[in-house]
Amino acid sequence: MAQLLPVDEFDLIIFGGTGDLAMRKLLPALFHRDRDQQFTSASRIIAVGRSKFSRKQYLATVEDALHKNLDDDEFDATLWKSFSKRIEYLQIDVSSPKNWDGLTKTLAGHEDRIRVAYLATAPSLFGPIAKGLKANSLINANSRIVLEKPLGRDLASASEINDQVGKCFKENQIYRIDHYLGKETVQNLLALRFANSLFEPLWRRGAVDHVQITVAEDLGVGNRIEFYDRVGALRDMVQNHLMQLVCLTAMEAPASLHHDAVRDEKIKVLRALRPIDADSVRSNTVRGQYTAGAIKSDTVPAYTDELGGDESNTETFVALKVEIDNWRWSNVPFYLRTGKRLKSKHSEIVVQFQDVPHSIFPEQEYNVVPNRLTIRLQPDEGVKLTLMAKEPGPGGFNLRSVSLDLSFEETFDIRYPDAYERLLMEVLRGNPALFMRRDEVDAAWKFIDSIIEGWESTNQKVETYVAGTWGPSGSSSLLDRDGRAWYADD
Ligand code: BG6
Hints:
This protein has 15 helices and 17 strands. It has helices at 20-35, 55-69, 77-86, 101-107, 126-135, 155-166, 184-194, 225-250, 259-272, 281-284, 303-306, 408-411, 419-429, 438-458, 473-480; strands at 10-15, 44-49, 87-91, 114-119, 143-147, 174-176, 208-216, 285-291, 293-295, 298-300, 317-322, 334-339, 346-353, 372-378, 382-390, 399-407, 463-466. Strands 16-15-14-13-7-12-11-8-17 form a nine-stranded mixed sheet, sandwiched between helices. α8 (225-250) crosses α9 and α9 (259-272) packs parallel to α14 (438-458). 6-O-phosphono-beta-D-glucopyranose (BG6) binds at residues 149, 217, 236.
């Protein structure tokens, strides 16, 4: 693989610099990229936080976080020495545009550098931080701003944030993160679909029976429960990650890899989603919440116990039947599901092809299973195609379903970078293709808002499921009604 050139000199300001995301994801990702010599020596990381830390104290926290979040053989004391030289820490109360002198001074004289403001803070601070940067004249033509999710909790609040940030930055300077777009296998979906001619003629109604997208987690909500209880799985996972997976699976071939070419095709999918509303919400959606159970033989408490015993109607699991109203996907349902405390961490896209139109192998004697393409996102990333084959041997046909199974780890014997490594580099290089444009966020919220309004107006309650299973029984019924079943439920 060609060695990438270092990115032009930059100042990366991380707002929320002492927070969980910075410590767990951003700083380890930057350390890896530095190790691969992608930063020039003068490039800086300026962490901004509310806490009163000296630079020395902050560096000690970062070093500790790197030890925790990197594999043992990935931490390197010599590199840490040079990496830590890049890092500065500033204490600023970003809720007000006053008293930003520390940042103004630090950035003064470096106007020609790429200047990225990464907002790893609560979304309620996105507007105030953008305003603070503008009021202190810290935005120039080289500036970019990165917004973490959640971007609001509905279309109205997302629009408000986008309006506030939009008053300070141009749309092409705004990078809205969905970390799923930085995952290698998600990107591989584009390679699979558009660098092979094999699948395209079959990637449509007539050949595809239906599509299943599963993003299952075995973890619970952990220490985010207060936040999560106000949000739920539909907003936390479907509005962004699963919607993006639907887009990449269903979109037409873009004319090029140019960011707007790709995003123009994705938005068409979002706009073609058949709305789910009060009339259709019960037949097309399932909400679940975990009760106590066991994950890999460890007992785990119920969601409501984690909440301190309070009742809650927040879904920790959601399944949807989604229809895309266009020529390609007419009558080809996409079934989506995601949840916490499911049996295992496991994400995949399954494209189920139709039965053969006429079987020369009578059903009574042969079990001919239709072809299936499985794109495994995590763990054990890869692609599997199931085909029917004849078992070797005399005495007529013995048919069996077999797999062509490509494991990326075995095929490409290289380390898989974390999604944040790629996304940070894309921001620094100024390529917004893997980030969401405002119209995409709006269209995804519009679809999600209608479901939430439907749930509220029909008073749709959560169904419980035992932690460590594949979700509530309603999830199986959703497919069962259509004569189908979820895969990987073993
Ligand atoms: C985040 C959600 O966006 O994605 C979390 O807020 C979820 O609730 C996480 O756990 C899952 O990401 P990954 O990369 O572990 O699949």
